[in-house]
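Methods — Computational structure assignment.
A single polypeptide chain was analysed. Its primary sequence is given first, followed by the predicted tertiary structure written as structure tokens.
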Amino acid sequence: MDGRILAIDFGVKKCGLAVTDPLQITAQPLGTVATGTLMDYLTSYLQRETVVSFVVGDPSLHTPEGHTLLVSIDRFLEGLGKAFPQIPVYRQDETLTSQKAREIILQSGVKKKKRRDKTLVDKVSAVLILQEYLGHL
């Protein structure tokens, strides 16, 4: 089925987003959105684009049980399923994606001032989550 897969690197304050092309071949950054406005953003995005599934980064393999981020992600996943029941949601291990994102940004030659921008790490992390998911399809 043609349509985009949208990945979310969920954070308590902001979320990095990435999408595939409609044929689900490549992953590219979509942006960084404040967590409080994420559902509104997704609603608006889905009015413009066909999304066939969501992939949400799952930190549970490297996060202590009961960590507040896990509770927030579970709450978000519940809301996502209710808001868009027709779109399946998958969890993807996000172990070390932020660290890998920082390394990629450093190697890409991005200037020091731009590297301090945490939203860049969030976007690249979302791309890494999506690429990992696509690798298992």
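Note: The helical segments are 38-48, 68-83, 97-107, 112-115, 118-135.
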